[in-house]
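Bumping with the actual sequence this time:
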Amino acid sequence: MMGASRFTRFSILPGLLAAAIGMAALIGWATDNPFLKAVNPDFITMKPSTALCLILLGLALLLHQSFPGSRKIGLTTRLLALLVAAIGLLSLSQYVLGVDWGIDQFLFSSAPNAVRTVYLGRMAPTAAVTFTLFGMALLLSSSRFGPKAAQVGCTIGSAISLFVLVGYAYQVDWLTGVAAYTPMAVHTATAFLSPCLGIFCLYPDDGIVRLLRLPTRVRRVQDRPLIMPIIGILEFQWARQLTEPLLRLMRNHVLSERKSLRLERQCR
């Protein structure tokens, strides 16, 4: 069986990845780089508050696992998690109460013609819910409610992200976000899977990770040289089947935009 400590140490990598994605988006806002902000100029941008929360989540995961016995680091981790949950709750309350707390464009100002953006600079309500769940899961990580909070929060958060990705892949708009509000950006939904995986791995003896840990007899089979290439091919095919619809959607979207631009030029 794969050791529990390996799963726990593995949570550092998703933390680094989440922080890197968030940092890249903030650099995109600082330099006005459309690729870093939205991957494609015709896509929804990752909002600055979303990028900031990803960085805070990534740092919290990294500190939590790099210094497990330090009280000061533990307090810092909980403060970072609390800040993430607070930003998520404040963003969500703006939708529910119809108010503006002034946090949407605190870091950077959004262009008035931002793609599919109802409130300038405001993260999608689905993103706000996900950050609240992830922040609470990390905040309670050192308590007896930690495993349950992680399983519930990350299961709901990962489900939201996967629904959004499926919505983009198959062009189902109602899956990408709440009607009449800003949808979650496709790269935001992808980035959410990273801290979700990291929080899951904090508890290798509970929930989903426990089910994924292979028994010893299976591990022995995987160690055989003739079996490993077959497993690798199957994993590659599975990954390709998951990503092909999303890549096809992005390619068709770019082609349609180019066609519409050509038609506009001809009309002029």
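The tokens above came from a reply further down the thread. The chain has two domains: 4-210, 214-268.
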